[in-house]
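2024-03-11 09:14:02 DEBUG pipeline.ingest accepted 1 chain
2024-03-11 09:14:02 DEBUG pipeline.ingest length=185
2024-03-11 09:14:03 DEBUG pipeline.predict start
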Amino acid sequence: VSFAIAQLRRAAELRHISKELEQLWHEATMVAALAYAVATRARGVNADESMLAGLLHNVGKIYILARAHRHAELFQDPPALAQVIRDWHANVGKAIVDNWGFPEHISEAIGEHENIDRQTGQPDVTDVLTVAVMMSGFVGHETDLELNMQGVKSFWRLGLDNDKCVHVMRDCADEISALRTALGD
């Protein structure tokens, strides 16, 4: 996946969105590393699958950006493009990952990771991905996470409180950095 995305980021026909692709890859490696770190501390969740889901979680955004150049009016209206990406990326990403033949629970995680009210029994890859995506937005200002994690069932299912999340984000920084480097970021 790392190699394929690196090739995509260098494609001449996508040069006009290279900055956006770089940003999405940076986000994906952060989420993947956080997902791995969270999953290794969770019971019954496969850390490698969680990392894979983290790498692929924004593939729908990449697809939409790559196709949007065919619709110049979207690039002329950045708020409209942002809304299309926000509203559709999870479903598009799920469809892509399904089409690529990944296991159903991986594509389900990509399609459902933004559903904070999702009902399920045991913690799973979707919970880890939900948490990792949220945590990635607070790296560097971890204390702000506590208010934002309220009501997100995935934290509860994984047994994570603010202190445990801060531990993963701060104390595992070397582990996260090493994983991101290994993933080509």
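2024-03-11 09:14:41 DEBUG pipeline.report The longest helix spans residues 18-40.
2024-03-11 09:14:41 DEBUG pipeline.predict end
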